[in-house]
Amino acid sequence: MRQVKFQKKTYKEVGELYAKQDRNKAIKLLQSFAEWQNDFSLRQNSFVDVVETFESRFRRNREKHNQESRFKPITRFYIDGLDEMNGGRDLRTQLTCLLAPTGVGKSHAARWIGKCASQIDGLNVLHFQLEGSEDEVVDAYAASLVSCNSYRYSTGTLKDRELERMIQEIKAMSGTLKVKSFPKFANQVSTIDIKNGIAEYKKIYGISPDVVIIDSMDLLTDSSGRRWSENGERHKRVAVANDLKDLAGDENVWMVVTYQATIENREWLNDEQNVLTEYNCSEAKGLSRPMTHLITLNQSINEMRENVMRLNVAKSRFFKKRRPI
User: Considering Cα of 142, then 147, then 150, then 152, what sign does the dihedral take?
Assistant: First the structure.
């Protein structure tokens, strides 16, 4: 499909150049397309010669290891109980999902990770916002960095003396925190857009992100370009999770996503013996398979009044699940 689209585009541009009497440019464009077409192939060699590639693969592995050793390790969730369970394991190339019903605070939890990663550990954080306004998420991040009330920051009612102190705190940060938002109206955002966003970030700033946050994953579509029917929604969401896991590995980042939980009986949440699991992933019971961690945020009405919640590790590939924290 990609070759066909590129071919049509090329022939269209060649026709336009001929119409403008620019014959030399048209010939050069056709020549470059012919060279690209000769090199293009969807089929890869399915056989790898272990003996012949022994030395070259070793040297490639050594170079890859030396490059990766220059990256800062990412070992913290910035939540004590989770950090204790993780035990210092590197979170690069992993996909972590924060699952919660509306209003519990999954977006706040994701921003907490982004804020701490950039401010405490000096990491480069790239946050993709797929819901809500850009101002909302940027102002919330800004206020959290200096521990001030987000309403006072967004309304510009901070005192000048307070502002000066906050500016100095921001200047002392060694990490970076960038936000890219997508307008929601008539916009279909795919995992290709996430990949291109990371590439754009690297091109503009000359560095790679360490942590990529997506709020929220259930608003993404996958990279296939397929128009999914309502019956195929489940398969689409699993495809999205697979894309993001692959992207985390390709880009050597920790991928953190939020996801909306499905709750049929709100009273079930008010029983504090109950916790959300992978079976509360809307439309996709198999969604957790590509994920390294599935962490659920649980809160009853009483806990909401007390401003507390329980975290449940519904899935972890590298450490044992324990009682909710």
Answer: negative
